[in-house]
Amino acid sequence: MPRPAARALRETGFYFGVAFFVILAAFPFYWMVITAFKQNSDLYDVTNIPFWFNEPPTLEHIKYLFEETLFARWLLNSLIIGLCVTAITLVTAVPAGYSLARMTSRKGEALGITIFLTYLVPPTLLFLPLSRIIAELGLQNSMWALVLVYPTFTIPFCSWLLMGFFKALPIEIEEAAIVDGCSLFGAFIKMAIPLSIPAILTVVIFTFTLTLQEFVYALTFVSSSDQKPITLGVTTDLIRGDVFFWGEIMAGALIAAIPVAIAYNLFLDRFIAGITGGAVK
Amino acid sequence: MSAIAEPVVKPTSRFHFIFDRRAVLETVLIAPAIIYVLLLVGLPLLLAIYYSLSAYTIYDPTWKFVGLANFKQILQNPTFLDTLRNTFVFTFGSQLLGLVLGKFGAFLLLQPFPGRKIVRALIILPFAVPVALATIAWQWMFDSLYSVINWTMIAAGILTREEAPNWLGNPYLAMLCIIIINAWRFFPFAIVIFLAGITAVPQDVIDAATVDGAGFWRRNYQIILPMILPIMAIGLIFGIVFTFTDLSIVFLLTMGGPGGATSVLGFAGFQTGIVSGDVAHGAAISLFMLPVLLVVVIFMLRFIRRREI
Amino acid sequence: MAAVLTRDIVKKFNEVAAVDGISLRVPDGEFMVLLGPSGCGKTTFLRIICGLEQQTSGDLLIGGNIVNEIPPRARGVAMMFQSYGLYPHYTVRNNIAFPLRTQRVPREEIAKKVEWASQLLGIDHLLDRRPRQLSGGERQRVALARALVREPTALLLDEPLSNLDAKLRTSARQEIRNFQQRVGLTTIYVTHDQVEAMGMGDRIAVIDHGRVRQVGTPPEIYENPADLFVATFVGAPPMNIVSRNGGGYLGFRPENFLPRDMIEDGGATEFSFRVDRSEYLGSERIVYGVMEGFDSKQPITAKLPPAHVAEDSIRPGEWHPFAVKNSALRHFDTSGNRTTSH
Ligand SMILES: Nc1ncnc2c1ncn2[C@@H]1O[C@H](COP(=O)(O)OP(=O)(O)O)[C@@H](O)[C@H]1O
Ligand SMILES: [Mg+2]
């Protein structure tokens, strides 16, 4: 039995630890929020205490973003890219994940690992040849180049993720359907797919967030402002010469980050299960 | 009776369908994914290797084969050796820091306390938010004039305004900055990986160890740690691969500066191959990542194989 | 409905034969039970019949047609899986209707047949539920209804009762048997439980290591086991087997091994039996011991009728005169096969 004093000390220490981590993790986002809604006169006055509003908050940065910059266009571009990449990924990765899960031979397993490993091939190794391929296809400087390239990492990742989910699906259900008159393909369409809607939803969310997070390919393949996705636009286009428009940049970053942060928090456990591939089971 | 037996009589040809063979269907279903990956990952990888052995630039697109000349030139360039060193410092510095933070964070999050869910959600943020956006927020926090970190230290009386560091202008501090940002980005990932591992350790194993007289440290380091090692290794592989090949943090924060102090492989490859258009040398620089990736891949394959035994 | 015939079916998994040459004839309307220990290849054999596995060699005929190359959906066979394989995302109604839908049966006819099948199995009040809202017994009936509804050429059941608790099992056994007789459906029923096999089968095929050891009616299997495996696998406790001088084995059921004075005269063989241990089971007493002059791997068992239970005349540690009627003795040769004449 620890004495009460020692216990109180331990608890205080514990909550200090928690507070440290929360501040470490969340302060930059707090800083985004504060900056995004501060008036410029407040922002650039070093005599002010920077942690809160010394003058009333303002929406002027956000207004400026939407009225004076291509921000809305970037949002739209990101949305289009995300939707197209998600569609391509679903159409290829759902069958692939199913096939990998149902392959009985060891060949299937080797194939699954190979597909997953391609997810680890980094953009910085591929961007040079890919930029030539994109030029050959006439897609340079266009967001469609990103639609073409992003599936190179979403397909392996999602195939792997879906393989795990399909493996957990009792095969008896599909076999019952096959005996009841379905073809093999029919069992996949009528049984495996409806039963893995939650997994497919996870894949949709992750594909979308992966496309939103991507930066290297966007930077490499797209240079005209009106073709940029939102992360690239916010981080490279709001700087005029040497002048950073911090209020606008932080507002833009905030708007782009919020949906991704929410999606991650909702689907984190599935995501972790996906990348660790059941390594502990 | 005969009406029921009927379907069996006729269908031999009508139902003799190629997709009824499992092997065929499996191949057909996986083919699109394989083809996509072969065309846009496999082919470019081969192309990258070829570029690095050629004299290809965007101004002079030639397939002229020059052997290992590009690699020789690169290795004779002292700036490149700095880049290589920076990459290792950046990778291992940030992974180490991230792991330490992750281990402690996981230890805290393992205890039940009110508001744990919200705390977890907040701690996940650095990993969830696009790295480019987070980096730009850090850049603002490291600003030479308006740095909130400096402001706090001055306000706390630790520094005077004259002593306030120029975070991104000093070579050592700049390296420290990119390490901190990357560790900051990965530590939530390390936390979740630790947590996933620890919660997967069956409680009865821990109980059995406790009954057998294992104390807190013994339980932690002789029972739990070995059991979560596989999952940790996978997490670490991710961290290493994506840090070693990173471009975004350096590109947005320091542009490799000051004076090349934070130039890493990904950035150097980008500058040479894309910005300067010297594709051959850029590819050669990028290819220096490959040995590290291969080591990681081999490690992972062996690892997965061992897990199956 | 149709007869099912297999000719020397072999199935190898990586060179190991799970099914090792099974030839079996199940006539139209028969209830055939496949009985064998776990891992002997029963499931694999069923899966070959319905087409989920392709045999390595051998022929499969349903209704007189060779269906080796025909995909499952065209074989018209229904199968009930061990854990039923109900479709979790469909209601009971749609579960039952599914086999009809795949065959593009007209809508009104589907409704009619679903009603018929669900009434037959007494589940018409459950039609709008989903499988997870059903109890084990109800799930089993839904699975049966789904198997029945399209009037299959044959019905295959793979240990259908193993997921039910002991009480339900007895009534479910009865139910399956009843409705099978009513519909007259060719049925192949797989189990490792000899009580199920004896109680339900028109005939039983005893399987071991992928081979059929014996096919026969339950009394044939019990009374005249074809070999030592069948003799010792069927019956609880199993048949006593002792080595015979001059080679071969002698077998007799525990209930035929009685104190000498309980057997009326006329053709009995006497043995001297030493009781080591006895178990009182209420309706009977099982005694274990050794027989003078005979080797046996297992203790010899005798199942004594209630009359002897009260008397307590069989005391452990003593030698008693026991006997078996000659007509109840079974002879096996050195390789374990039963020799008919003796
Ligand atoms: N898909 C498979 N791959 C390899 N071996 C299998 C496969 N299915 C069954 N087996 C093996 O075949 C044998 C028979 O299995 P099974 O038919 O399931 O037996 P039962 O149903 O009588 O218990 C077992 O030894 C089993 O391990
Ligand atoms: Mg079985």
Helices and strands, with pairings:
The complex is a heterotrimer of chains A (281), B (309) and C (342).
Chain A: H1 4-37, H2 40-43, H3 60-68, H4 71-102, H5 106-118, H6 123-136, H7 143-149, H8 151-168, H9 171-179, H10 184-195, H11 197-213, H12 216-221, H13 230-236, E1 239-240, E2 243-244, H14 246-276
Antiparallel strand pairs in A: 1-2
Helix pairs in contact in A: 1-14, 3-14, 4-5, 4-7, 4-8, 4-11, 4-13, 5-8, 8-11, 8-14, 9-10, 11-14, 13-14
Chain B: H1 2-9, H2 22-52, H3 69-76, H4 78-110, H5 116-128, H6 131-141, H7 148-155, H8 171-200, H9 203-211, H10 216-244, H11 248-253, H12 265-275, H13 279-287, H14 289-308
Helix pairs in contact in B: 2-13, 4-8, 4-10, 5-8, 8-10, 9-10, 10-14, 12-13
Chain C: E1 4-13, E2 16-26, E3 31-35, H1 42-50, E4 57-62, E5 65-66, E6 77-80, H2 92-101, H3 107-120, H4 136-148, E7 154-158, H5 166-183, E8 187-191, H6 194-200, E9 203-208, E10 211-216, H7 218-223, H8 228-233, E11 240-243, E12 249-252, E13 258-259, E14 268-280, E15 285-291, E16 300-304, H9 306-311, E17 319-325, E18 330-332
Parallel strand pairs in C: 3-8, 3-9, 6-7, 7-8
Antiparallel strand pairs in C: 1-2, 1-4, 4-5, 9-10, 11-12, 12-18, 13-17, 14-15, 14-17, 15-16
Helix pairs in contact in C: 2-3, 2-4, 3-4
The structure holds adenosine-5'-diphosphate and magnesium ion (MG).
Summary tags:
heterotrimer, A: 281 residues, mainly alpha, MetI-like fold, 2 domains, 14 helices, 2 strands, 76% helix, 1% strand, globular, C: 342 residues, alpha+beta, Rossmann fold, OB fold (Dihydrolipoamide Acetyltransferase, E2P), six-stranded mixed beta sheet, five-stranded antiparallel beta sheet, 26% helix, elongated, binds adenosine-5'-diphosphate, binds magnesium ion
